[in-house]
Amino acid sequence: MDQVVLKNVTKSFVTKAFGKVTAVDDVSLNIREGECFSFLGPSGCGKTTTLRMIAGFEDLSGGEIWLGDRPVSIKAKNFYVPPEKRQLGMVFQAFAVWPHLNVFENVAFPLRIQRMSNAEISDQVKQALKHTSLSGLEEKYPSELSGGQQQRIALARAIVASAKVLLLDEPLSNLDPKLREIMRFEIKDLQKKLGLTIVYVTHDQAEAMALSDRMLVMDMGVVQQVDTPTSMYNNPANRFVFSFLGLSNFVPVAVHDGTVWPAGAYGGSLECEIPPDWDDDRAVLAFRPNEIEFASDGGYRTRIKNRVFLGDYVEYRMDIGDTEIRIQTHEHKDFGAGDLCGVRLSKVKWYPAEEEVSDDERERRKVI
């Protein structure tokens, strides 16, 4: 069953400085019951605006939103269900806990708004605290707790009213890296234990890939791809998705008489297979730092610009043509800065060479 459904959802803003901007552009999406689904993209791409429309904090400019078989926003009919009646749990980037209330009262707050009896409140709060590893801390105040424990309060408050859908807006971005990793696993365990549907917004691709059953990548309000993390990483729909998931190298090339020449290269060609259906004389080759290797003989000849030891791997920087690329390898090589070497691409994706959309538009959207 589909738990969250978006049908041709659009959101536009009109500002004095920038005029009309379409923050979310004709998005249609089905999120399944019990699924952890992430919205991934750079700042200003429209992911948080979409989440806010699902929550009911923003009205639509067009389209429909359904929760299960229940419509909650239909712009054509001016139909709108307010946030408090959508039965959703929400966790924000800021911890959003009340400093003057202890842990118990912070978690109990939405139940008191619903005018539940004290016995019901006590029972449901105890269950929520148990699920979020906060049992025994009922009388503590937020100032006495760590950042991770404060975020657990927010999670407990989100699930205490038995919401089946949780909306999480970059909930771990204020935590240190080690605690962030711990909380990823706790959120995933909580989802499985309670059978929750989670809609998770983040700009951290590692976080999205670790948590998601499926995820979506957005850019400038437009959905670029929806897929599982593994499939999206291995088969990105376009150059933007490739660049946003993990480290990447992009090398512009010319194709002439079956030979691939890097832009700015004089006398050196790349050894790589040209796709049989490629009919353009220019392209951009995309590959990960671990998808290029040192050649014992032959390969593209270049010089090491920099070598950095990073624990379990070594990173090298060098030029292919006039483009700097990076190689990451677990093998021990005796190369140093200035040494001549040969490199060969082991895996490569081909993309059209036309100009990418200007970053100026992405920067403009960040301030709207």
Q: What is the topology?
A:
Layout: E1 2-15, E2 19-32, E3 36-40, H1 47-55, E4 62-67, E5 70-74, E6 79-80, E7 88-91, H2 103-113, H3 118-131, H4 147-159, E8 165-169, H5 177-194, E9 197-202, H6 205-211, E10 214-219, E11 222-227, H7 229-234, H8 239-244, E12 249-256, E13 259-262, E14 282-287, E15 292-294, E16 300-309, E17 314-320, E18 323-329, E19 340-345, E20 349-351, H9 359-366
Parallel strand pairs: 3-9, 3-10, 7-8, 8-9
Antiparallel strand pairs: 1-2, 1-4, 4-5, 5-6, 10-11, 12-13, 12-14, 14-20, 15-19, 16-17, 16-19, 17-18
Helix pairs in contact: 2-3, 2-4, 3-4
In short, what is this structure?
The protein is of the alpha+beta class and 368 residues long. Helix content is 25%, strand content 35%. The protein contains 9 helices and 20 strands.
How would you characterize this protein structure?
This protein has 368 residues and is of the alpha+beta class. Among the domains are: 2-85, P-loop containing nucleotide triphosphate hydrolases (Rossmann fold); 103-155. Helices cover 25% and strands 35% of the residues. The protein contains nine helices and 20 strands. The strands form four sheets. It has a six-stranded mixed sheet with strand order 7-8-9-3-10-11, with helices on both faces. β4 (62-67) and β5 (70-74) form a beta hairpin. The longest helix has 18 residues, at 177-194. The radius of gyration is 25 Å and the shape is globular. The two termini are 36 Å apart. The model has no long low-confidence stretch (mean pLDDT 89).
